């Protein structure tokens, strides 16, 4: 018996890595996450086959722009060991890595962006625990319930 499929929202700035970039490459390591809680979600929670809502952040119209699938188990993020990388962490070592990532595979682009403003209009349905609309949330990776996943994609 396999574990039930889980769902996640993963944010990326489109100038750094967009849904179009993911579509072009097919599968990509989700590197550069430097928040312990987001890291823990990837390292401890994500399983191959889990669904991902791909969210463009820090853009004129932030919102959900596509879906993807978790394509690997978590493994150490190599950028933490590279002094030339923006994500270098001198306190991390190969023996005791601090930062982990998963590979993410493209599924599809949405027919339109489901904007943050539109998502906020559904706060009652999504619930106050939905991290994207909670004040002060800065996580780039967080869980989404099956009901939230279904509702958000129904907005397309």
Automatic annotation (TrEMBL):
Start and end residues of each EVE domain: 6-154
Annotated Pfam families: EVE
Cross-referenced InterPro entries: 5hmC_binding (IPR052181), EVE_domain (IPR002740), PUA-like_sf (IPR015947), THYN1-like_EVE (IPR047197)
Position of the signal peptide: none
PANTHER family reported in the protein's UniProt record: THYMOCYTE NUCLEAR PROTEIN 1 (PTHR14087:SF7)
Name this polypeptide is given: RNA-binding protein with PUA-like domain
Species of provenance: Lysobacter niastensis
């Amino acid at each position: 018996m396999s574990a039930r499929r889980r769902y996640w929202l993963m944010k990326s700035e489109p100038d750094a890595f967009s849904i179009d970039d993911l579509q072009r490459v097919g599968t990509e390591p989700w590197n550069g996450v430097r928040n312990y809680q987001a890291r823990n979600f990837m390292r401890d929670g994500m399983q191959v086959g889990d669904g991902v809502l791909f969210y463009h952040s820090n853009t004129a119209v932030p919102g959900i722009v596509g879906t993807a699938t978790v394509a690997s188990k978590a493994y150490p993020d190599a950028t933490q060991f590279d002094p030339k990388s923006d994500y270098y962490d001198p306190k991390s070592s190969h023996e005791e890595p601090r930062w982990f990532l998963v590979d993410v595979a493209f599924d599809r682009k949405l027919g339109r962006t489901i904007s943050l403003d539109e998502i906020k209009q559904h706060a009652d349905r999504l619930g106050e625990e939905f991290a994207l609309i909670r004040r002060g949330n800065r996580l780039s990776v967080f869980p989404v319930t099956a009901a939230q996943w279904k509702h958000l994609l129904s907005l397309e």
